[in-house]
Amino acid sequence: MVRPLTVLQMLPALHGGGVERGTLEVAQALVEQGHRSLVMSAGGGMVDELLAHGSEHLCWPVDRKSLWTLRLVRPLRRLLRERSVDILHLRSRAPAWVGWLAWRGIPVDARPHLVTTVHGLYSVNAYSRVMTRGERVIAVSETVRDYVLDNYPGFDPGHMVVIPRGVDPAVYRYGWQPENAWLDRFYAEFPQLRGRTLLTLPGRLTRLKGHHEFIDLIAALRSSGEQVHGLIVGGEDPRRAAYAAELRRRVSDGGLSDDITFTGRRSDMREVYAVSAIVYSLSGKPESFGRTVLEALSMGRPVIGYAHGGVGEVLAKVFPDGCVALKAVDALVARSRGFLANPPVVSFEQPYTLERMLTATLELYEYLAEGQ
Hints:
CATH topology of the largest domain: Rossmann fold
CATH superfamily of the largest domain: Glycogen Phosphorylase B
Order of helices and strands: EHEHEHEHEHEHEHEHEHEHEHEHEHH
Largest sheet: 7 strands, parallel
CATH architecture of the largest domain: 3-Layer(aba) Sandwich
Number of helices: 14
CATH class of the largest domain: Alpha Beta
Structural class: alpha/beta
Oligomer: single chain
């Protein structure tokens, strides 16, 4: 049994998202295993949940991408020593610069061990290189591992470990269906969906998410008589209001206002997955992992997505029938028609579980702390 560790995770904020959720999951696992969990961020709506599970939150403005943030280097260096931090885990570039500079200024024999996680396919530059500075660098997928090795030729591959993200099958339970009370509320909010076969595209309203191909898909299916209704589920970025307006105008001009619904951001995605016949992932840019794909598959919902990046990686291992070539709208339509005519069975078994992710992460912390 390893001695109790003090682990400090650093990220910009705790407003919500995959990085934030993973941070909270690791923090809770640390506490449950008898370790001390510290999280540093600029705060946000998830802080209360973090505290409720026994972690300590340090509210520092580490989210600012400016030279001003470097003022935090010396105070952080002092905090690392005063709190006897064993593992410093950096999860995003802005706080990583503060964390790495603080860590580097501590004598080697007094430093905590340094872990970084590359969560995304970041732009390749000196700013992003900081995420390769860890004693161990976690890649959230094989896609990310290959991206780092391809773009940072001086990086030692022996320092990298792949720990895929995972979902909790007790939350995203196979075959789960929402209660009648939720269904009543949902159909009261969106009466046009009652009795229709729902096809769902999750993701923020940004140009890379494939909304135009999804609109083309729904138009093609409706023109052939399929009783489907498209759900575009995602919040609008105020900076991209013109794009959101463009999508709505295209739906209206195409005579699809009765066939496609924009739901906005939802906090009940599990329920939305459950009532969807097919879930889609159509990002034109490769993603690092594809958590929404895995959530839907974990519930037994079929997913159709482009066979590239982390989404293609997950589909290839869990549901290869869901893979279509990038931007191949005809194949997208044909695959959808096939699934609607003969609903496929998604495997109950899949390797991307929360338990495996947490076990691998804590084992890495303990391995480093034991001086391996």
